[in-house]
Write a sequence for this structure.
């Protein structure tokens, strides 16, 4: 990469016209050759889902922008196996900037994180960026953070099979902390309504009452005003209990 600009694939889960991805593309163009392949509409909460129950359509907007009528996982799969030529294979994939946090357990629901995870599974380092702000979204500072973190990842690399889930506070950050995934304290809330035709419909939400203060978590870093960088991977194995459960192999199944 010393003699040429790195190739950067950009995706998200808020859709190709979202303010966050526009801000992310602007700063990525300062450091690399950019390709944007994103959902044509919002896919928040899509998690790491791959569309298998219907055909998908790709629409090319110009020589560097495509939309897919599917999930972030679909977008990255198509980018690396259908859309981009072998000589356009990206050096890194950045996903975001998401409108809202992807902290703790919520990372498992996140289409933003899933886009970065799919890239990592397919052999491309993945970064997921989220701005921890519920209402107003000024992406100036979060875009700057995204540029600096991506530059560092390109320069020093990321361990194989690892993606970085990056959450950015809405104010100017005090610095960066490498964190572990935390756990929220929340209760699901299901809201029931009746449509104009008299039929029931529902909204799924939750009521949050905080997070578990365990030390070194992404929640605590954000609460203290820091950028949270959490190394993650697709391996869901609980390695700590493998030895403990070895006795299951001795069960008599006859």
């Amino acid at each position: 990469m010393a003699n040429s600009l790195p190739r950067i694939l950009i995706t998200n889960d808020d859709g190709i016209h979202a303010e966050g991805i526009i801000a992310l593309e602007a700063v990525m163009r300062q450091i690399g050759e950019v390709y944007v392949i994103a959902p044509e509409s919002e896919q928040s909460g899509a998690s790491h889902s791959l569309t298998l129950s219907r055909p998908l359509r790709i629409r090319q907007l110009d020589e560097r922008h495509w939309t897919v009528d599917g999930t972030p996982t679909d977008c990255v799969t198509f980018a690396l196996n259908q859309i981009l030529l072998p000589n356009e294979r990206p050096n890194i994939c950045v996903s975001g900037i998401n409108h809202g946090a992807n902290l703790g357990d919520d990372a498992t629901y996140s289409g933003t994180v899933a886009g970065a995870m799919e890239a990592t599974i397919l052999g491309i380092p993945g970064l997921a960026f989220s701005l921890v702000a519920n209402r107003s979204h000024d992406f100036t500072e979060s875009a700057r953070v995204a540029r600096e973190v991506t530059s560092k990842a390109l320069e020093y690399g990321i361990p194989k099979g690892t993606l970085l889930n990056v959450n950015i506070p809405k104010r100017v950050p005090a610095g960066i902390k490498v964190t572990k995934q935390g756990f929220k304290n929340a209760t699901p809330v299901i809201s029931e309504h009746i449509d104009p035709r008299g039929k029931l419909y529902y909204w799924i939400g939750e009521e949050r009452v905080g997070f578990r203060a365990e030390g070194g978590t992404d929640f605590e870093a954000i609460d203290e005003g820091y950028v949270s960088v959490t190394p993650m991977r697709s391996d869901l194995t609980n390695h700590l209990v493998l030895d403990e459960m070895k006795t299951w192999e001795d069960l008599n199944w006859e």
